[in-house]
Design goal:
336 residues; globular; 12 helices; 32% helix; six-stranded mixed sheet; five-stranded parallel sheet
Length: 336
């Protein structure tokens, strides 16, 4: 991912089968966990790397995007880092961070001494593909690290587990839930079961709202670069919403994940609803200083809403899908 992409990026059933699944051979995305020798613990991540410990890890640290999801399943982190402050990250709304060490609040800036002092047993993060086919380039650092050198330094503190954010969020949610189960989440717990039910209800509501046919364009805007328009099939959450019926505008272009438009060309990409990124991008008030922004039909209709970069878990996704369903249900077809 280029610099701007880094700046932007920012199963419950699986929970019940994590223990006892072989971690030898097969697709890393389905290997899961297995008892290590003499009652130890192991987990094979989405790079095919197997972490083996003498006992199940109790102290988990890692990237905001992943630990926030694990926390929604009851696995509270001891330390977090990310490209935004936890205070500005919607993934942590309502969570008590008083016992969590915040060791990094901008991309790649991690206080290694503070992270080491938190004494994590494992460190979790994500990894993004480099193309629409899902190719992962292991010569590049995992998401959240500024370099391979930094990644190696972090790995000296505790083993790193990477979850691939590719394909549909439905699959990434299952994989994250599998990791949560390996880390001690209760698949039969009332909160977990309720989370899945709310996710299924939100999915149905989004499908119903999307049936109205309004078009949606998610963007991250910058004063000096214009619109970065997301390609739904390359972003896991958007792809899942599209599978549920949401009509995303295809911005065109051959590149992966984003297509860009200069401010003078922004009006060439109309939509009924505009979603704006909350991660380091311009707010609607800031975008309004650009003359062409006000020419967009969605802006003129007041159909502009936040695009929240949230975790791959039932709780976070259900909450956002409910919001999105409400916006789509209330939106009108305003494009020419």
């Amino acid at each position: 991912m280029h610099r701007t992409s880094r700046r932007l990026l920012g199963g419950l059933l699986a929970l019940g089968v994590t223990v006892g699944v072989s971690a030898c051979g097969g697709d890393a995305a389905t290997e899961g966990t297995a008892p290590a020798a003499e009652g130890g613990w192991q987990f094979t991540d989405d790079l095919g790397n197997t972490v083996e410990l003498d006992a199940a890890p109790e102290r988990v640290a890692g990237l905001n995007d992943v630990v926030s999801s694990l926390w929604n399943y009851g696995v509270e982190p001891v330390a977090t880092f990310g490209q935004t402050s936890t205070a500005d990250d919607v993934a942590f709304e309502g969570k008590d961070l008083s016992d969590v060490e915040i060791v990094g609040e901008s991309y790649g800036q991690i206080d290694l001494e503070q992270l080491a002092a938190a004494a994590p047993d494992v460190i979790v993060t994500s990894v993004y593909p480099t193309d629409s086919e899902g190719t992962i380039d292991e010569t590049q650092p995992l998401y959240g690290f500024e370099s391979l050198e930094q990644q190696e330094q972090v790995a000296e503190i505790a083993p790193i587990i990477a979850i691939a954010w590719k394909g549909s969020a439905a699959d990434v949610i299952d994989r994250t839930a599998e990791l949560a189960g390996a880390l001690g989440a209760d698949p039969e717990g009332r909160e977990v079961v309720r989370a899945r039910e709310e996710f299924e209800a939100a999915s149905a509501a989004l499908t119903e709202a999307a049936a109205g046919g309004v078009t949606v364009l998610p963007v991250a805007a910058y004063a000096d670069e214009g619109f970065y328009m997301a390609k739904a099939q390359d972003e896991p959450s958007l792809r899942m919403y599209a599978d549920l019926g949401v009509r995303f505008v295809d911005p065109g272009g051959e590149g992966y994940y984003w297509e860009t438009a200069s401010w003078e060309n922004v009006p060439q990409h109309p939509s009924d609803v505009l979603l704006y990124s909350l991660r380091g991008a311009m707010t609607p008030e800031e975008m309004a200083t650009q003359p062409t922004y006000g020419l967009l039909p969605a802006v003129q209709a007041g159909q502009v809403h936040p695009w929240k970069y949230i975790g791959m878990d039932y709780v976070a996704q259900a909450a956002y899908m409910e919001e999105l369903a409400g916006w789509l249900a209330d939106a009108e077809d305003v494009t020419p």
